[in-house]
Amino acid sequence: MLGLHLPSSQEWLAAANLDPASILIDHAHCEKKAATMAISLLSRYPTKSELVEGMAELAEEEMGHFRMVLAKIRERGIAFRSDPGDQYAQQLHALIRKQEPHRLLDTLIVCSLIEARSCERFQILSKSVDDADLRSFYRSLLESEARHRTTFLALARRYYPTDLVSQRLDELEHAEATIVSELPNQPVMHG
Ligand SMILES: [Fe+2]
Ligand SMILES: [Fe+2]
């Protein structure tokens, strides 16, 4: 349903289970970066009204998620810290072609893949993490990330021919699977 070519590994789940505090901190940064990305897209393409509306709504929702994760971090007495960067997202962003019209198409597809992978990881955490409170926390978030994936793909299909979207989506899905297969299984959301 999420279109991902490679499921996340058991090794990543084991790393997440050992260090839920690090997962929460990284998760907060992911939500903040999702909001930042949405604002950057609506700033870059102000004449595309569906994109502007969709990204305005998304930015607000992602900031709401950021606040939810931050509250969970505070509730557990975890010290929030700076973001060391997300190598998964950086590697995907590096595949975005620099020239338009390719740039927007690739950006929308990359964002859809990050949402899909986040949703898949929330699904895993909501079923299999040891901490029952975190299981229900992740369950409460996974539906919106699945919806965000659909939002980005619908925008891609709004501005580009369906065949072109499908072809590039297939290429980037394969690239995403390769990137995931090489991640070091760290206790971070996309580790
Ligand atoms: Fe989110
Ligand atoms: Fe999202």
Which key terms come to mind for this protein?
Ferritin; single chain; globular; mainly alpha
Describe the model:
- This protein is an all-alpha fold and 191 residues long.
- It has a single domain, classed as Up-down Bundle (Ferritin).
- Helix content is 75%, strand content 0%.
- It has seven helices and no strands.
- It is globular.
- It binds fe (ii) ion (2 copies).
- One fe (ii) ion binds next to α6.
Radius of gyration: 16 Å
Number of helices: 7
Biggest beta sheet attributes: none
What CATH first level would be assigned? Answer: Mainly Alpha
> What characteristic shape results from the CA principal axes?
globular
- Please give the number of β-strands: 0
Strand percent estimate: under 5%
Please, what is the CATH homologous superfamily?
Ferritin, core subunit, four-helix bundle
Task: Give me a quick take on this structure.
The chain is mainly alpha-helical. It is 75% helix and 0% strand.
Helix and strand topology:
Layout (H helix, E strand, L loop, with lengths): L9 H9 L1 H25 L4 H27 L11 H7 L8 H27 L3 H28 L2 H20 L10
Helix pairs in contact: 2-3, 3-6, 5-6, 5-7
